[in-house]
Amino acid sequence: MLVISLACSGDVAPVSDTGSTEVPTTDLTYYADVKPVVDTHCTRCHNVEGLGPADLTDPEVVVERSELITVWTGEGLMPPAVADPECRDFQGSDHMVLDADERAILLEWHEGGAPLGSIDDIVEVDIIEPTLQDADLELVLETPYEATFWDDSNPGNEYRCFVLDPGLDDDVYLTAMAPIIDAAEIVHHVVLTTADREELTEEHLAPQGWDCIDGDGLSMTDQMNAGWAPGMVPIEFADGYGMKLPSEQVLIVQMHYFGAPGVPPDQSGYAFRTTTQTQKQIYIVPLGIGDFSIPAGEVHSDGDSFENTLPVDLDVWGVFPHMHTLGVSYSMTLNDECVVEGTYDLDNQLTYMFDEPLELAAGESVDFECTWDNTGPDARTTTYGERTDEEMCFFFTLASVAD
């Protein structure tokens, strides 16, 4: 997600219904040629409610910022970094990676005066929806919560847990999910797990939730349902697959807020598609390491292996790599075959879902590695931790028992 403003410097020519006041020197127009590129690659984040600055669904904004758009796309800084689809292709990769021809279109159009052209020439393209469409279950915090960042020993960090009770009469399977992010400027990440309803105390059921910076205080179940960070898009499972949510359980949402006192209150939550029909179960396996140390002044790599010790083969459907502010790159391999690798971007973290699963046979292992850059001016030895100024190396892996 772009965190540097796309506001142009200098004067900008006014926009008319035929484009800028400059005489066009190109046959390319916004409506016929540029809008399809922008809609495909940019408006996922850069919309009126998006995390990216500048509403690039507005033609006038695209024209006014055409120079800056070409600079950022030309230098490969936009769209932001994602996993390399040549390692293993993933759903939506054609929206995440801008090819050379598309960069050339943006540049020629800008240098030719950025004409709008005729609205009748609009070319409709598929877009990635940032929210879950056709959700049948939406759960948000009971009341808005105002983070106070009260703990001086954890400056700028507040972990708050809340119960989201779906009030189910029967077991359901979650077949698609996406968070409902309210105060986007302070939500660093969201983790969704389950707990038995009978475990809950009055503290847990309070509308304002409870502090859980070092754990949620519940024994929980073995099921992690979702992890979200900025940049992520809705997750939809293949037909016939889902995550089971028993009727006797509730969802626990852990909100990691990162900011300072005085921020707006938050009332985030989650949206789902559900079914009562039995599905093949998807599980999240949180693969990672917690015993690393990143020396100050160094670029450091560390990793580990995970062996499938179950007596069954597993199908790997997707992977969510996660680090913090020092993260540079990540990789996961299976029998020397690339599963996921790429440059890490804190503001554009995705769960990379595969069209076809990758088999992890019983007894086989996956190897994973993270690289961090700890050479900044305020560098200090950094170790594992949940706080933003600590680090992580996780590969949240979505898997099912193979057929």
Can you walk me through this structure?
By secondary structure, the protein is mostly beta strands. It has three domains: 15-121, no CATH class; 137-281, Copper type II, ascorbate-dependent monooxygenase, N-terminal domain (Jelly Rolls, Sandwich), CATH 2.60.120; 284-401, Sandwich (Jelly Rolls), CATH 2.60.120. 12% of the residues lie in helices and 34% in strands. It has six helices and 23 strands. It has helices at 30-41, 59-64, 66-74, 93-96, 100-111, 202-205; strands spanning 15-16, 19-20, 137-140, 157-164, 172-180, 187-196, 210-211, 224-228, 235-236, 241-245, 249-258, 269-275, 280-281, 283-288, 293-294, 298-307, 314-322, 327-334, 337-343, 352-360, 365-374, 382-383, 394-401. The strands form six sheets. Strands 3, 5, 9, 10, 12 and 13 form a six-stranded mixed sheet that branches. A five-stranded antiparallel sheet has the order 7-4-11-6-8. It has a four-stranded antiparallel sheet with strand order 14-23-17-20, with no helix packed on it. A hairpin with a 2-residue loop joins strand 18 (327-334) and strand 19 (337-343). The longest helix has 12 residues, at 30-41. The radius of gyration is 23 Å and the shape is globular. The protein starts with 14 loop residues before the first strand and ends with a strand. Mean pLDDT is 89; it is low at 1-20.
